[in-house]
Amino acid sequence: MSSQNHLDRLVLQNKEREIRKLETIEDASKRPFHILSLVGINEIFFLHKAFVDQDMQTSKIFLYKIAMTNAYYHEQVKGEIFEVLKVFTYPLLSDSQTAINRYLNYSRTSYADSYSAYFGKAIQSVLKDDNVALQSNIEGLRKWSTKGWAKQYAGIVRTFDGFLYKDKAMIEQGLQEIVDLHDKQEQPALVGDYINLEASALAKLAWRKGFKAEVKSKLIPRELLPVKELPTYEGYQFFEALGI
To answer: Hey, where are the domains in the chain?
Structure first.
């Protein structure tokens, strides 16, 4: 089966699954246990829209839904948002200023001294132009980058060094190091066949900050890098609890 046919089939399956999950979470008591299923569902929708339909701009709707579902989980369910490395990639890639601004304010975590937390907080630091906080978060990343699974993402450290020193070539070198180890990383199932979320989000961050970083890799889709916010973002009804 071709990858396109596989995604076609998954989209149909996940449209039905999305309906069932939305019905389930209408019961507030069940919501904490089912809401994050919408993340994987929208990852499939994103992949199909971006890489089968080749409509990168519209695909941002699904990245926004993922970002705001994670935001709801953090704010309303009191779940952890700094535990998983990829979580902070979705608001950046969506180009939704609403989502990005929300993630700028997150600080609560039980994983403060972890690679994933330093990654999210380093992104916050770059967006806020806070070089003092950025330097601190880089040192945290550097400490953990020689251990366990984080070794496969060590290029993140060089990328953030590039942001700190405003060095486009260093940013690009770091991005290349990330994608060079893509096959050894803990990438989400199927998503990793099409895109490296961390490298793409950091490349997008570079474009947002005026560094048009270029890395020749299909894992960093060039069409996704220009900052182009959608006029509107369709969300779920439960996002109303976030004031949206």
So the answer is: 3-225
**Which residue, chain included where needed, has tokens 């994608």?**
179
Quote the pTM value. Answer: 0.97
State the alpha helices, DSSP H only, in 25-88. 31-34, 37-47, 56-75
Name which of 195, 163, 168, 158 is nearest 179 in CA terms: 195
Q: Answer whether 137's CB lies under 8 Å from 122's CB.
A: yes
Q: Is 4 helix (H, G, I), strand (E, B) or coil?
A: helix
pLDDT digits (tens, 9 = 90+) for 1-28: 467 889 999 999 999 999 999 999 999 9
Of 118, 119, 81, whose CA–CA distance to 103 is shortest? 81
**CA-to-CA dists, residue 22 to 40, 72, 123, 129, 210, angstroms:** 14, 14, 31, 38, 39
